[in-house]
Amino acid sequence: MSRLLRGFGEVLEKRELIVSLAGADFRKRFVGSFLGIVWMFIQPIITVLIYYVIFQLGFKSQPVADVPYVLWLIPAIVPWFFFNDAWGGATNCLYEYRHLVKKMVFPVGMLPIIKIVASLFVHLIFIWILLAVYLLAGTDPSLWWLQSLYYSFCAAFLALGLSYLTASVNAFFKDMGQFVQIILQIGMWVAPIMWDLNMFSESIRWIFKLNPFYYIVEGYRDCFIDHDGFWQRPALTLYFWCVAGAVFFIGTGLFRKLRPHFADVL
User: Fold this and answer.
1) Burial of 225 by CB count in 10 Å (0-12 exposed, 13-18 middle, 19+ buried)?
2) Is 0.85 topped by the overall pTM?
């Protein structure tokens, strides 16, 4: 717990540096691009349209929980876009910023946070798009929508713990970046993002619930569809934070242990 508190204290102390470098990282993605930031949204929007055409128009998917399929899909896939971008990008942060890693005065432990904050900028825009879609669909605004900020924090914290772990290993074994991408490809289908968990019997559902991202997927749907609070899922909430906390402490511990060697191998 003391390590976690020290970490949050360091983040607050260097918040201006983090936001500044995250903004620079965000802008760097579009240097030399004619459409600029538009590219950040083209692929996710096309992905949603493909699933809409295939499942709702092609397979004639029935409404899930009395909600049109696309309105059921979007709240789950938006946090996945963020998690995918955050973890995938932060895994390669040491290589991307190796010029800073080799500067002994730079706080190397801030690099995964910087990458995740840069992804968070895009995610916040996607949340606004999500709100707009629901308003255009005729849904009344709800205070429950604000709870999505909590689940966004959950996704960021989980991605941060995993990033410390994989970024540490990636400094020594470059294949880790490819391995993470494979996990993310599989993870999108393992998490009940595009399909309803109720398709399976109760004896099988618990296996999918072991995936910590299940908590975030269902949480976003609670915000926009079911209007339930996270406190109404006490067991799942406790499980998520135990897993996310364990991943964070393992990841930061490995990062701290290997940090003296980063400059030598990059």
Assistant:
1) buried
2) yes
